[in-house]
Amino acid sequence: MKTRGIVFDCDGTLIDSVEVVIDSIHYALKKVNSADHSSEEIQSLFGPGADEILKKLIGDEEKAKEAYEHYLESQKENVFEMKVYDGIRPLLETIKKHKIPCAMVTGRHSRDLEVVLKAHQLEDYFEVVVADDELKKPKPSPEGLELAALELGLPAASLLYVGDGEGDIETSHRAGAKVIAALWDSHIDLEKLLKKRPDFTAKKPEEIVSILGLNKDRHPQASLS
Fold it and tell me: Is the dihedral of CA 4, 130, 169, 82 positive or negative?
């Protein structure tokens, strides 16, 4: 089936945010006098939203809710320490120009996702945004990608998902979508990603234009395959 829409992960794909997210979680744990955890352990829990990560680290739901508010404080204060990767904005502009339906499916909670998207002026590129707190099951469940497909009015199998994590690749496979492994984040584990057998890999965002088969001389969408 032809590719009719494209879906992006957020952290590690659109935004270079891993270090800031980890720092915000350390800050939140400290503010509620909870035991701190290593940065490596925190990163190993990435996938679901920060609210769920804090629940796992703290083990007390009410205390975790309080910690999440402090996490949000830190994210807002440091939002411009998180950078949009070079090449992402031109890629999104090209997708918009060619009128390709575009969505986001992310492990971020909708509240801290809004902080990032507004600050970096990315909201207008996405017709559909699916955050972790809208779902019953986080990635690698296909639920988020299937919901994005439903809201775009497209079959999940016609979508191309772009993500930097093993869970992103598994999510795509389970939804029947094609997937591009985004390799531009410095924190990726290339060997583990490739073991998940992505359909495509891209070392730079601009390579996605070629994967989509877009050509400036052709009519928009004429070259999608």
Answer: positive
Cα–Cα dist 134/136, whole Å: 7
Report pLDDT for 216. 52
| Confidence label for 217 from pLDDT (cuts 50, 70 and 90) | very low
Q: Where are the alpha helices (DSSP H) in 32-162?
A: 39-44, 50-58, 61-77, 88-97, 110-119, 143-152
Question: What mean pLDDT comes out for the span 77-105?
Answer: 97
Are 209 and 3 in contact, with CB atoms under 8 Å apart? no
Give 98-134 pLDDT, tens digit per residue.
999 999 999 999 999 999 999 999 999 999 999 999 9
Do residues 156 and 177 touch, judged by C-beta distance below 8 A?
yes
Residue 31 has pLDDT above 90, yes or no: yes
Residue 189 and residue 100 share a domain: yes
Task: Return the H-helix or E-strand segment holding 7.
Answer: strand 5-8
Are 99 and 152 part of one and the same domain?
A: yes
Q: Please report, for the domain that includes residue 87, its CATH number.
A: 3.40.50.1000
* pLDDT for residue 81 is more than 70: yes
Task: Return left, alpha or beta for 43; rule: phi > 0 is left, psi -120 to 50 is alpha, else beta.
Answer: alpha
- For residue 134, the tally of other CB atoms under 10 A from its CB is 13
Mean pLDDT, the chain, whole residue set = 92
> Among residues 183, 174, 179, 189, which one has the least CA distance to residue 211?
179
Would residue 218 count as lying in a domain?
A: no
Residue 63 belongs to domain spanning: 18-80
Domain assignment of residue 119, yes or no: yes
